[in-house]
Write a structure and sequence with these properties.
There is one protein chain. With 97 residues, this protein is α+β, with helices and mostly antiparallel strands. It has one domain: Nucleoside Triphosphate Pyrophosphohydrolase. 26% of the residues lie in helices and 26% in strands. The chain has 2 helices and 2 strands, in the order αββα. Strands 1-2 form a two-stranded antiparallel sheet. The longest helix has 13 residues. The mean pLDDT is 89.
């Protein structure tokens, strides 16, 4: 988030900057806290939101080098962050899927 920016404005901006997609934010789907295991490590709170695609095609910026659209069932083959599957299930409930 940038100074003076609302959370929803930051979500719209970040998604547009990194993927060129326009989204409609629906609701917070879940969050994860990453606590440092060593002195000097960062302490992060990651907030994941359920959203709907509104417009655009994926165009990645310089921070990203690949993307995939996957069915939820196909995620089982990928290495994912601990707790992500629970957040995905929460997002599906929020979106009525």
């Amino acid at each position: 988030m940038e100074f003076g920016e609302t959370l929803h404005a930051a979500l719209h901006r970040e998604v547009a900057e990194e993927t060129a997609l326009k989204i409609d934010v629906v609701e917070l789907a879940g969050w994860r806290e990453v606590v440092p295991t060593a002195e000097g490590g960062g302490h992060y709170v990651i907030m994941s939101f359920a959203a709907r695609w509104r417009a655009g095609e994926v165009v990645l910026n310089e921070e990203l080098d690949d993307h995939q659209w996957l069915a939820v069932e196909a995620i089982g083959e990928l290495k994912i962050t601990a707790g992500l599957q629970d957040i995905i299930e929460s997002a599906r409930r929020v979106l009525g899927l």
